[in-house]
Amino acid sequence: MTGDLGNEAGRSSLETSILRTLVYADLFDYPLTAREIHRYLVGYAASPESVEEALFRPGLLRERIDGTTSFWFLSGRSQIVEVRREREAQSHALWPWAWRYGRQIAARPFIRLVAVTGSLAMNNVSHARDDIDLLLVARTGRVWLARALALLSVHLACRLGITLCPNYVLAEDHLRLAEANFFTAHELAQAVPLYGLEVYRSLFDHNSWITHYLPNAAPQNGVEEDVWPKTRVGQRALEVALGGPIGEALERWERQRKIDRLRREAAQKGGLESQFNADLCKGHIDSHSAVISQRYAERLKAYGI
To answer: What are the structural domain ranges in the chain?
Structure first.
């Protein structure tokens, strides 16, 4: 498929961006509302009104996309509307568990942010017991101890058949992500904060590069539900107790043994995207970002973009 999407440069750029946006969503069998197209519009700053106008404007774009009263998708892909509805129902069954264990993790010492990422963040899980991916921010100097304490909730959830994956843990003074690419920008833009809204907004501030890829994406308001006050008292008490030499020794011990083990696992599985250091635990060892990026590039090429 080739051809320009309009005669006017601005119109062509907007319509091309809409097509780029729908092509990316289609990789996940995910039709978009007009509002979502605006939020995740690739590489083009536009108003919601101009996006909606472009969606209905006759031309080459309308020949390549289709829509219902609720969703937009690539031509010939109307079946993914039902897929989205089914996955939304499955996601709704999983959210109460995310909130339950998110509250638990937020109450652990040194945790400053808990956010849901991945498929659940978009209500697009493939089954009602899909993984719950989490992004955590911890106090600087206690990343690995905070992670270890968060894993207590992971083990508790596992007993009930719930899979929590806190696979990204950052130190609160190292919020700028090293992977300044489209995939990471999208993951951050769709993240749903459960606890720590101020830190979540700071995370956006430190990664303003995402507007290069998604100019209309801004921090989501989120619905922050605080942990129980009595639990907060216990959290602060433990932070005081573990804030000195004892906590430092435990942090060094946990950091050394886990980094050595995780690096071995990543090397065995070819996990080129994983990163482990004193301020970061990025445990993605399946090269998911690279796979998706390659598929996206191939699909864009097929559309002549």
So the answer is: 9-78, 85-287
Task: Look at strands 164-171 and 275-277 and give their pairing.
Answer: unpaired
Please list the alpha-helical segments (H only) found in 70-136: 80-106, 118-121
Amino acid at 268: Q
Nearest-angstrom CA–CA distance, 50 and 52: 5
Those residues whose C-beta lies under 8 Å from the C-beta of residue 38, and which sit 6 or more positions away, are 46, 47, 48, 51, 52, 216
Residue type, 135: L
Q: What angle do CA 1, 85, 153 make, to 5 degrees?
A: 110
The residues, any chain, with a CB within 8 Å of residue 131's CB and separated by 6 or more, are: 118, 119, 120, 163, 164, 165
CA–CA dist 67, 155 (Å, integer): 43
Reading the chain (305 residues) residue by residue, the pLDDT tens digits are 334 444 444 446 999 999 999 999 999 999 999 999 999 999 999 999 999 999 999 888 999 999 988 999 999 999 999 999 999 999 999 999 999 999 999 999 999 999 999 999 999 999 888 999 999 999 999 999 999 999 999 999 999 999 999 999 999 999 999 889 999 999 999 999 999 989 999 999 999 999 999 999 999 875 555 555 556 778 889 999 999 999 999 999 999 999 999 888 888 876 667 899 999 999 866 668 889 999 999 999 999 98
Query: Which is it for the CA torsion 116, 122, 123, 124, positive or negative?
Result: negative
**Domain 9-78 maps to which CATH number in 3.40.50, 3.90.930, 1.10.10, 3.40.630?**
1.10.10
| Entry pTM | 0.89
Distance of CA 292 to the CA centre of its chain: 14
- Closest among 59, 73, 46 to 4, alpha carbons compared: 59
Which of 39, 48, 16, 45 has the alpha carbon at shortest distance from 215?
A: 45
